[in-house]
Amino acid sequence: MNAKIEAINSLRIIDWYGNGGECEYVLVDDTPENRKILMDAGFTEDELNVPEVSYDDGSLDVAYLAFNSGAEWFNAKLRMFGLEDNMMLHGDGDK
């Protein structure tokens, strides 16, 4: 797994939504600590501040980051993103 996906998976998810097998959003708190974890993994401040990621309600949509960093799926039960090489974990997740 790549460092960016591992960093995203280490964050506490506060909300998510999937519809028809598609992952619409996965939200984490927009805190200095979470931003540091993401930036230490290789994300830039510019990537975290785009409207698709940084919401006015104080949350970050990490689904956008994950899928643009190579994630192939999101497993709602495990609350994690994954790559094709570990599809065995996909199970009942939403992509």
Q: Summed up, what is this model?
A:
This protein has helices spanning 3-10, 32-40, 45-48, 62-67, and strands spanning 13-19, 22-29, 59-61, 73-75, 80-82. The protein is α+β, with helices and mostly antiparallel strands.
Describe this structure in words.
The protein is α+β, with helices and mostly antiparallel strands. 28% of the residues lie in helices and 25% in strands. The chain is built from 4 helices and 5 strands. The protein has helices spanning 3-10, 32-40, 45-48, 62-67, and strands at residues 13-19, 22-29, 59-61, 73-75, 80-82. Strands 1-2-3 form a 3-stranded antiparallel beta sheet. The chain has a two-stranded antiparallel ribbon with strand order 4-5. A hairpin with a 4-residue loop joins strand 4 (73-75) and strand 5. The longest helix has 9 residues, at 32-40. The radius of gyration is 12 Å and the shape is globular. The model has no long low-confidence stretch (mean pLDDT 89).
Strand order in the sheet with the most strands: 1-2-3
| General form | globular
Task: State the total count of DSSP E strands.
Answer: 5
Radius of gyration: 12 Å
Give the structural class. alpha+beta
Task: Pick out the low-confidence regions.
Answer: none
Instruction: Quote the beta fraction.
Output: 25-35%
Mean pLDDT: 89
Query: What's the SSE pattern?
Result: HEEHHEHEE
Question: Largest beta sheet, briefly?
Answer: 3 strands, antiparallel
